[in-house]
Write a structure and sequence with these properties.
The chain has about 375 residues and is an alpha/beta fold. It is built from 13 helices and six strands. Strand 5, helix 10 and strand 6 form a beta-alpha-beta unit.
Length: about 375
């Protein structure tokens, strides 16, 4: 946990990437934020000709003791049942990973079920679910540290230069809401939503419970203290994976609200983590927009998704592949024999940006839809 993650600001490489993008056969800035995405990937990987290799989707699963208090519309058994669905290839993330050639690894971080060992599943169970956070810490400090260490260890065993984050755990939107409220200093009512589909009255009851949990752990203000207090094992395991991926300079593709909460913790521990992150989408879960704002992050997509499990990260993945391909393969004016405009000044369309956003704020390509899916992040 004390391993320092270095800043990757590289002015010379940034200038080289920008020069390459500006000299492609197109008006400057005309590929919009895809250009910023290409530059970000190039900076993470340390090359002007980035190639995405062996992308890995890591879906971490765990149960939450707080779920027994009715903070989710679904019973805890859905956690292990969905793990089986992931492994059988029938979940949304399974379909998308298969479609895009993304390796899928599911990790049992603390599910209240004993799985048989088989391909695609790693057993890193810290316990059979976290404790009820209203009665005491969801995790002990030792359990939290073990889950983080597990995430680091799992990541080192995966190939490739890109990590996509996924999760599963009934009750984990509650943990994410509490982490955001505590670490960003927000009222928990502002950041608590319907989760798996609670009605308005149930959401209000959920807020009362979460407020009581935060009051119970009022002294848990440091990132790891807050994480241990509210859980869960799958979030802590993702924190470890994110820290290790950042150390190894992998591109980190962040899914929705719960996956972002793991990045939130990791970034509060080591801010350079955010330089390696591409935020896939803006979730329909209420707190996600506020979490993204706190992280100064902009998502690639805005489709009203609220499924979790890594589905949004998988949907955004082709944009990263395309950004790299354009950077490497699109011809320059000189190579293609195409004349430049005599006016070399830049005249962007209204509302567009010519230069990429700074490395602290990932680019966005907003693609909006008016409806969301039926099931939400746990």
């Amino acid at each position: 946990m004390n391993t320092h993650i270095p800043d990757i600001t590289q002015p010379e490489l940034a200038r080289a990437l920008q020069h390459t993008l500006d000299n492609k056969t197109k008006p400057r800035g005309s590929l919009g934020r895809i250009e910023a995405l290409a530059q970000r990937i190039g900076l993470v990987l340390g090359t002007a000709e980035p190639v995405m290799l062996s992308p890995q989707m890591l879906v971490c699963a765990g149960d939450h003791g707080l779920a027994a208090r009715g903070v989710s519309a679904y019973p805890s058994d859905v956690t292990w049942q969905m793990v089986e669905n992931f492994l059988a290839g029938g979940a949304a993330v399974s379909v998308l990973a298969r479609q895009h050639g993304i390796g899928l690894t599911v990790v049992d971080c603390g599910v209240k079920h004993d799985f048989a060992h088989r391909e695609g599943l790693l057993i890193r169970k810290v316990a059979h679910g976290t404790a009820d956070a209203l009665e005491g810490p969801a995790m002990s400090a030792a359990q939290c540290a073990q889950a983080i260490a597990n995430g680091r260890e799992v990541l080192t065993g995966l190939p490739g230069n890109a990590l996509l984050l996924g999760e599963m755990g009934i009750g984990n939107t509650s943990a994410a809401s509490m982490l955001l409220a505590r670490l960003a200093g927000l009222d928990v009512a502002e950041v608590t939503g319907a989760g798996t589909g609670l009605d308005a009255d149930a959401v209000q009851r959920k807020i009362v419970i979460l407020r009581a949990v935060l009051a119970r752990h009022a002294d848990a203000k440091a990132p790891l203290d807050a994480l241990a207090a509210v859980g869960g094992f799958e979030i802590a395991t993702l924190v470890g994976a994110v820290l290790q991926a950042a150390l190894e300079r992998r591109v980190i593709v962040v899914d929705g609200f719960i996956a972002s909460s793991a990045v939130l913790v990791a970034a509060h521990l080591q801010p350079p983590v955010l330089q390696r992150c591409v935020f896939a989408h803006r979730s329909g879960e209420r707190g996600h927009a506020l979490m993204l704002a706190h992280l100064k992050a902009e998502p690639l997509l805005d489709l009203g998704l609220r499924l979790g499990e890594g589905s949004g990260a998988a949907l955004a993945w082709p944009l990263l592949v395309s950004a790299c391909a354009l950077l490497r393969e699109m011809a320059s004016f000189e190579a293609a024999g195409v004349s430049r405009s005599e006016d070399t000044s830049v005249h962007p369309e209204p509302g567009t940006s010519v230069r990429p956003e700074p490395v602290e704020g990932p680019p966005t390509v907003l693609v909006k839809a008016s409806t969301g899916s039926a099931r939400t992040e746990g």
